[in-house]
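Milestone M4 deliverable, item 7.
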Amino acid sequence: MGHVPVSSDLTPAALYQWLLDRQACCNIFDAHIFACILACRLPLGPAAVGLTLPELTRLLARYFPAALADGLPLSAAAWTAAPSAPPLSPLLAAEVTDLAALMLDHRAQDAEEEGWMAVLVARACLDTAPLWDALGLAGRRDLDALMQRHFPALSHRNGGGQGWRPFLYRLLCLDSGLIPCGTDHCTDCGAGPVCLGWVEW
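Output delivered:
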C-alpha cells in the first residue's frame, strides 16, 4: 500500500476530515468515533493504536474503504517515522488485553466493531491524558455515548458518572479478587496516586 505522510503533513483534525471524506455507508456515529480515534492515534505509530494490522485493515475497509485505495500510513516506513509510542511491555500488553476482555464481557452484541472499540479504548487507558482526549474525542459526552452504544451494561453500572478509566480499572480489580475500594469515586479515596498515579483527573 502507498501512504500519506500523516505525521508531517496532516493535523489530527485534517486526518479526521480526510477519513470522513472517504467513508462508506456505515453507521455515522461509529464512523465519527473511529475517525476521531484513528486521526489522534495513527500518527503516533502502531503501538499507540492497539489493533493488529489485519484488524486495522478490516476496520478501514468497512468504514473508510476509499482511504485504503488512496493510501494510508500503514507501511512499516511510515510508522517507523513516528515512534512516539514504543511497543508495549508484556505487562502493559496484558493489561490492555484484560481491559478489552472486561469491556467485551459487557458488549451490546457480538459485532466486530465492539472488538475494535474495546481494544482502542483499552490501549488509550494507558495514556496520561483524560481518556476522551487520549481517544481524540471532543469531550466526555462522546465517550459516554460510545460506552452507552457498545457497552450498555457498563454504562448502566457507571450510573454515578465516574471517570471511565478509573471505573474500568476498579472493575478489573474487583474481577481479579482484590479488595474493593471503600469509595465510589477514586478522587474521594486518597489512594488514587498509588493505583493510578499517572492519571490526570
